[in-house]
Amino acid sequence: MAFAAAAHFGHSLPDKVAAVRRAMDVVRVLHSLPSGRVGDYVAWLFAGTVTLADLVGLTAR
Q1: Which of 5, 30, 33 is nearest to 17 (CA)?
Q2: Model-level pTM greater than 0.85?
Q3: Rounded Cα gap, residues 26 and 44, in angstroms
Q4: How far apart are the first and last CA of the chain?
Q5: Residue 26 contacts by C-beta under 8 Å, 6 or more apart in sequence?
Q6: Cα 47 from Cα 10, distance rounded (Å)
């Protein structure tokens, strides 16, 4: 949620907050990763699915 908020509202948040700057750096890196190839999108879909399944599994214990 923090990365989504930083990507969406980052331009209006004060630059003095170090956490916002670090989050924006991560968002910039994440925006530069996909190359537009189908394999990249499949890999990101798989990574997101695995991450979501892991989080659901951790909360189900």
Answers
A1: 5
A2: no
A3: 16
A4: 23
A5: 3, 6
A6: 25
Output the six-digit token pair for 29.
């890196």
Q: Which two tokens stand for residue 20?
A: 């916002």
Least confident stretch, 10-19, 24-33, 34-43, 48-57:
10-19
Spatial distance between the Cα atoms of 21 and 29, rounded to a whole number of angstroms: 12
Quote the CA–CA distance of 17 and 14 in Å, as a whole number: 6
Q: What is the largest CA-CA distance in the chain?
A: 40
Say how far apart CA 25 and CA 7 lie, in whole Å: 10
Phi, psi angle pair for 17, to nearest 5°: -80, 115
- DSSP secondary structure letters along 31-52: HHS--S-HHHHHHHHHHHHHHH
